[in-house]
Amino acid sequence: MKIEKAVVLAAGRGRRMRELTVDLPKPMIEVRGKPVLQHIVEGLRDAGLREFFFIVGYRGDAVQNFFGDGSRYKIAIQYATQVVQDGTGRVVDLARNFVENSPFILSYGDILVDPANYERIVDLADDSEAIITVKRGEDVTKGGAVFLNDEMELVDIREKSHPGEVESPWYNAGLYAFRPSIFDFTPRLRPSPRGEYELTDAICDLARSGKKVKALELAGDWADVRDPEILARLNQ
């Protein structure tokens, strides 16, 4: 089934960006002459997605003023505001009415991928409930270490482990495809040791319920635009 709806999480300030995010949320920082969010929107649009739901928060006006209703990009954009910055888990519930009964893509607003990957993730197989994207060779202490079985199906995710604590070749790449069944699991979340509601906990619960969560290894360039050093490298 081809997916036509996208939910984009664009609420974060990105404190590690320091003065760069005084007036802008992190997803609006420019990489190669365009906001990160514009790269994401254009990549998803070119893969056939037409309905977008932006969840904004810190300086959300900057996102809305830039993208408007989406008509300039030949898409339709709706907005919701994350009032409390309490992680990626509960915030997805804001998209429940937008999603209705449709499968959808979820992208973090600070993740850049080779656009060819969007074409690969919009096809959600009938026997799969979700897709989680992964990359090899990333530092799992900076994000999620992903554990898979031999069929590339999700077994577990460990968030921001300490050095040497876990070993996995797979890193959570921050781009997903879901069926609406994910909303059966997000309301049950409890705060993680970091005090946040983690979307990855809901995804693990989905997999443990017997539903198939497939992993897709991304090809080509990938970047989590998380600090000034990575930003400078991307803009060289």
Chart the SSEs and their pairings:
Layout: E1 5-10, E2 30-31, E3 34-35, H1 36-46, E4 51-56, H2 60-67, E5 76-81, H3 88-91, H4 96-99, E6 104-108, E7 111-113, H5 116-121, E8 130-136, E9 144-148, E10 154-159, E11 170-178, H6 199-208, E12 213-217, E13 222-224, H7 228-234
Parallel strand pairs: 1-4, 1-6, 4-5, 8-12
Antiparallel strand pairs: 2-3, 6-11, 7-13, 8-11, 9-10, 9-11
Features:
single chain; 236 residues; alpha/beta; Spore Coat Polysaccharide Biosynthesis Protein SpsA, Chain A; nine-stranded mixed beta sheet; two-stranded antiparallel ribbon; 7 helices; 13 strands; 21% helix; globular
Would you mind describing this structure in some detail?
The structure is a single chain. The model has no long low-confidence stretch (mean pLDDT 91). The chain has 236 residues and is α/β, with parallel strands linked by helices. The protein has helices at 36-46, 60-67, 88-91, 96-99, 116-121, 199-208, 228-234; strands at 5-10, 30-31, 34-35, 51-56, 76-81, 104-108, 111-113, 130-136, 144-148, 154-159, 170-178, 213-217, 222-224. Helices cover 21% and strands 28% of the residues. Strands 1, 4, 5, 6, 8, 9, 10, 11 and 12 form a nine-stranded mixed sheet that branches. Strand 4 (51-56), helix 2 (60-67) and strand 5 (76-81) form a beta-alpha-beta unit. It has one domain (5-234): Spore Coat Polysaccharide Biosynthesis Protein SpsA, Chain A.
Assign the CATH superfamily: Spore Coat Polysaccharide Biosynthesis Protein SpsA, Chain A
Given as residue ranges, the uncertain stretches (5+ residues, pLDDT < 50) are none
Secondary-structure element order, N to C: EEEHEHEHHEEHEEEEHEEH
CATH domain class: Alpha Beta
